[in-house]
Amino acid sequence: MKGKGLVVFRGSGNVFRDLGHENADIEQFKAILAAEIIKALDREGLTVRGAQSRTGVAAADFSRIRNAALGRFTVDRLMSIINRLGSRVEVKIKVRRVETLGMQV
Questions:
Q1: Quick one: how many helices (H) and strands (E) in the chain?
Q2: DSSP 72
Q3: What are phi and psi of 8, to 5 degrees?
Q4: CB of 14 within 8 A of CB of 22?
Q5: What would the mean pLDDT of 64-88 be, rounded to a whole number?
Q6: How far lies 102's CA from each of 7, 21, 36, in Å?
Q7: pTM
């Protein structure tokens, strides 16, 4: 709808930040970890019950992860689940100054 009065802004790369969530960086990191867990389950062909018997993590937790209901999970808990699935997490940290952008909605 070009020319119809729409203003388009480039996203920050973090949808949670763009939506104004208070803990956007943590939510983004948790979403990335959950996606890796889901990839591991799919790669191994594991059901939530199969994942439970293999890792000792409750099937309900795997269901929550598959449904992106991550509120009950901490970053370290998600990392622990990845470890129990036989993978390791490598984290690189880059700290940069926040640029104040006149973001409009």
A1: 5, 0
A2: T
A3: -110, 130
A4: no
A5: 96
A6: 13, 17, 33
A7: 0.78
